[in-house]
Amino acid sequence: MKYNNVKRLMMVGLIASCAAFAAAAEAMPTGRNASPLVEYPSVRDAWAVAGLPVYTPTLLPVGYAQKNVIVIDKSLAEIFYRNSDGKEILFRMAAGNADISGDSTAYEVNQVVQAGRQYIRVKGTGRMVRLALWSRGGYTFSLSFEEPVSVEAVEAIVTTIAWN
Fold it and tell me: Which of 10, 56, 93, 121 has the fewest Cβ atoms nearer than 10 Å?
């Protein structure tokens, strides 16, 4: 009989501990451990959170479709485009003129090309581009290509961005 009482006391203690732990977890501030990456359902929503005008490419290589729209630290907005083979293109935009690509690779080719009135830094190998960077109107942009594209393709993509 004493064994059952001890067992009940242990169960009550366990339940009380769980309740106390749950209450403590609810009381913790959630912002402290919140992720700096937030996904949005639309480009307009994401760009509004980042305080950016909506400048995005309207032309991409055949087969690529928009998959994810993310804002990092409420200041850098990005769109992932993916094709049926799982290859990705990442478009990023932020205020300023810094390199926001996150790519520190030392590429064989690192040159500036001109598309219309826009200067674009392209990086890659030979005539194939893996990374494109440019600034315009107080904003900085990058395009990262998992599957390299030609310089001409980069120029065509960048010229499709409608500048308000």
Answer: 10
Q: State mean pLDDT over 50-76.
A: 94
Residues 63 and 84 sit within 8 Å (Cβ to Cβ): yes
Counting Cβ atoms within 10 Å, is residue 94 exposed (0-12), middle (13-18) or buried (19+)?
A: buried
Spatial separation of the C-alpha atoms in residues 52 and 86, rounded to whole Å: 28
Q: What is the spatial distance between Cα 120 and Cα 111, in angstroms, rounded to a whole number?
A: 8
Backbone angles phi, psi at 38, to 5 degrees: -130, 130
- Percentage of residues in the chain with pLDDT exceeding 90? 73
Q: What is the pTM of this model?
A: 0.78
7 — pLDDT class (breaks 50, 70, 90): very low
d(CA 156, CA 164) in angstroms, rounded, equals 18
Q: State the Cα angle at 124 between 90 and 141, rounded to 5°.
A: 40
